[in-house]
Design goal:
The chain is α/β, with parallel strands linked by helices. Helices cover 43% and strands 15% of the residues. One of its GO terms (cellular component) is membrane.
């Protein structure tokens, strides 16, 4: 029986979008034909216990390396090759092409017949720097297929590959569980708990890092409040930018109209999306194009929940929006510059219930047509 070996650093319980992508795909493959080789989430007894508990719940085999970050070293390559032979795996899926895809030749020698490497946002950054560009080229030569999220990442990564490897690229974005993210996901209960029952809510669900644009939304709030005085910005998530954002709300004078939830368990995220009337995350590109949004699955989760979205123009984020149909794409530049455009779009949506309804319904329809996990998992099975 042919089996697949997934080699990845990005796997739960480590949090993040790539981790959720891989786990959702893995759950839709045959568990009897799947082995996951992953790094350890974090050191210490608490991290070890969380990892052990998570692994025990999975229907497939999970093998953890002792390190918290797998690198394509000789030791890791030998371990991966040993697992490939031990479990009779004939195909390999690198959960993130860079840098682990550099192990492809070693796994080919160990018996892998099909090797697929998935790219995300950071590989587009690799493609811009001479040294990492050459490594990306080697990964393309060593694999059968490199997958990409959307046109933005495809065009940049393809430029670093040989023409033959670029021609083998296939789109494989993350999907949305439309049964989990839906209009009746429990948003009313979240609103009631937070005291927001009768207020128009702009919700942003994401890690709190500068690229995501929560600061743009805070700077947009004075303009929004002039038009919609009882509006509130609900910022869902945790991250290193939290302190700066809280400080900015005070400096901007909108602290009473911005709520921070902090980190929220994954199971509660659908209800927090549902607490909003509008979803907004005006993400921006930073560091000369090295820090970009690969796709922005949160826009699609919001669409599945029936919300119109306001997205930034960073990287592949526009691929997750039908501009003018499921929401709008706005400029995601410096916060002080981008705030006015975000405010304009948000005010328009908050003031027009019919427009919100129409865009939300179209977004839900689009997710069901194109972005369901089961459709994308079938595509992965074919590639493997």
């Amino acid at each position: 029986m042919d089996k697949t070996l997934i080699v990845t650093n990005d796997f739960p319980p480590r949090p993040g979008g790539i981790q959720a992508f891989l786990h959702n795909m893995a759950l839709r493959l045959d568990p009897e034909r799947l082995v996951v080789y992953a790094s350890t989430w974090k050191r210490g007894s608490e991290g070890a216990q969380a990892t052990a508990d998570f692994d025990a719940e999975q229907p497939f085999t999970v093998v953890r390396d002792r390190t918290t970050m797998l690198l394509p070293t000789p030791r890791v390559s030998r371990r991966a090759a040993g697992l490939l032979r031990e479990h009779g795996c004939t195909s390999v899926w690198f959960g993130a092409a860079a840098p682990l895809g550099l192990m492809a030749p070693a796994l080919r020698r160990a018996g892998a017949k099909r090797i697929v490497a998935t790219t995300h946002g950071h590989e587009a950054g690799w493609a811009q720097l001479p040294a990492s560009r050459q490594l990306l080229r080697r990964i393309g030569e060593g694999t059968d297929t490199i997958t990409y999220l959307g046109e933005y990442t495809r065009s940049r990564i393809a430029a670093a590959l040989t023409p033959q490897a670029a021609a083998r690229m296939v789109q494989l974005p993350p999907g949305v569980d439309e049964k989990t993210f839906h209009p009746g996901s429990g948003g009313d209960a979240v609103r009631e708990r937070l005291g927001l029952t009768d207020r128009p809510v702009v919700v942003c669900v994401s890690r709190l890092v500068p690229r995501k644009g929560q600061d743009t939304l805070i700077l947009a709030m004075p303009r929004i409040l002039r038009e919609v005085p009882d509006a509130v910005l609900l910022v869902v998530g945790g991250g290193p930018y939290a302190g700066e954002l809280r400080k900015l709300t005070a400096e901007t004078g909108v602290a009473d109209s911005v709520r921070f939830t902090g980190p929220v368990p994954w199971a509660e995220l659908p209800a927090h999306f549902g607490a909003g009337d509008v979803f907004a995350m005006p993400c921006r590109t930073r560091r000369g194009g090295l820090d970009v949004e690969g796709l922005g699955i949160v826009y699609l989760e919001a669409s599945a929940t029936g919300l119109p979205v306001v997205a930034g123009d960073s990287g592949g984020a526009p691929d997750a929006v039908l501009d003018g149909e499921t929401g709008w794409v706005v400029r995601g530049g410096p916060a002080a510059v981008a705030a006015d455009e975000s405010a304009d779009r948000i005010v328009t949506l908050l003031g027009d219930p019919e427009l919100r309804r129409r865009m939300g319904e179209r977004g839900r329809e689009w997710v069901e047509e194109k972005w369901r996990w089961d459709l994308l998992a079938e595509k992965l099975k074919t590639l493997l």
